Amino acid sequence: MKHIITTEKAPAPIGPYNQAVKSGHLLYTSGQIPVNPETGIKVDGGIREQTIQVLENLKAVLEAAGATLEDVIKTTVFLQDMGDFAEFNGIYAEYFAEATAPARSTIQVAALPIGALVEIELVAKV
Length: 126
What we know:
Blueprint lengths: L1 E4 L14 E4 L2 E4 L5 E2 L4 E2 L4 H18 L7 E8 L5 H11 L7 E6 L9 E8 L1
Helix pairs in contact: 1-2
């Protein structure tokens, strides 16, 4: 059985999808981009500011499902420019300890919605 997860502490979907779906003991999130949920606007700044907003959005979705970053099994990261990888990785490491970090794929893409520099989706155990 699938259960839809939503929270006002993360940006509302802008299409026919949900913030997350729980199925059994797994939570699948939609990709989060650097939108401030209070304003509905992309945060100012570069990869640092955008990565922080994306990870905070994901934390909010996890919390709505009763999970935390410690429960994350896998992340998929989409970067608009692989040249941002080192700075992105530094911020990511502040959220996920290396010893217990989830599996991860990082992919460079041609473009992301609203001109975002980063988008992240994840799978977590709940």
